[in-house]
Amino acid sequence: MRQRATAAAAITLSLVCLVQAFGPQAQWDLRIWLAMGHAFREGRTPYVNLGDGLFFVYPPIAAPLLAPLSLLSLRAATAVWLLLKLIAFSGLIGVWRRFVEIRGSALEVLYFLFAFGSALSIDLISGNPGMFEQLGIWLGLLALSRGRIAWFCIAIVVTAQLKIAPALMLLALLAIPEKPRWGAFGLSAGGFLAMLGLQQVIAPEWFAEFVRRSAGVDERGPSNPALVALIRDIVAQPPLAAAATVVAVAGILVLSGRALRRSGTDPAARVMLVAVAYALIAPRFKDYSYVLLLPVGLHLLRRARVAVPLAAAIAFPVPRGARALAATGRYLETYYPLACALLAFKLLLDELSGPGPSPDVSGPP
Fold it and tell me: What pTM did the predictor assign?
């Protein structure tokens, strides 16, 4: 029965990819990669701009890594790229099984396809290399949960070379182990900065263009349903938005730290909380990036108590009536994956902040 469900999942994903991933409007990020590859192989700057907000905005090291795809036609490159991403997703499933039970049921197939605003489907259709980023992060977290500090540092530092944000995951060295690993944190952070600096030395003009374009990116929900984007949407004044962001990030880190200190030594639960905290504090967390939290949501959905906060979130009374409810609804629609992540964060805090192993711990979570 389990083999049949697994086969059904594979067939479902394949059908989704065939119908949508090969469509004329799909693989927009892959088109950027192909244009970048052509420019790179011709000796031009890889920082191409296709218009309509489609432009290359990755560190210089990304150019030689994926330029070979440009040797293929768009259709052939899509097939190869999709196959590689499905292999990466299979690797993710293998890693996630170490943290949460995955049975391969039909409901789980629907969950993976549509959870967190259809993050997985968007990832496969967009052509973004985010799937490989998630695999690198989760391989690192698996190594850290097993006490293999060096492998965690290598996985995160290498992953962060393509997309800078995963470097924030190095903070897990201070949270997941029973004792903070300050030495490993300092060495790995220094290694990340050194490798980034090496890119600047080798390709200074390209690196300067990367910095300039990165600084100019101001995406917000629904394509970038990140907490920082939501704050900037709500708070119009940039100084106040920056201050609110600092307060929000500090609050997330403090709450996470308190929960982790009060929790037992269960590495899986600690890893899940760290993953959600990372998703919330990342300055840019795209719609497909929420693939990172799929095992967290699956873990929480298996809890009987999850129905209570979900029902409360839907039926929460709004004191100012329909107008306020409509405004809240607009933000909820735009930042739906973020709302799911915030709910997951609250549920994990409750789970980890319960009575710890010490007999004198008491009181409400």
Answer: 0.86
